[in-house]
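ARCHIVE CARD
Drawer: 12
Card no.: 0347
Subject: one protein chain, sequence and derived structure
Cross-reference: see card 0346
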Amino acid sequence: IGRILNVIGKTNEALEHHKIALEIQEKNLPMDHPDIADTFCYISDVYVELKKQELALQYVLKGYISCLKKLGDSHPETKEKFETLQTRFKQLHPNGDFESWYSKELTRTE
């Protein structure tokens, strides 16, 4: 429901639905479950629409790290989330050093 609401421009409702879904998932699934990673990325998409790029970046990072831990760096879902992470970073920091930021974030989240 949240994804559809986001597509039709009802971003606040979409965010609410995604956060409810995340709460349910966090109670019933391990934190590294791919469904939770997807929900983090859906929330990131909503924050992009709301022009909250920093929050969008942080949520896609959570989704990426979750996939990385569970599926490894060669899995297609992990690769897709990594590309989205790069895109979100460049949107927020057009001249920023992604590799440096990425290394710091991975170290911080270990």
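Annotation on reverse: The mean pLDDT is 93. The longest helix spans residues 53-71.
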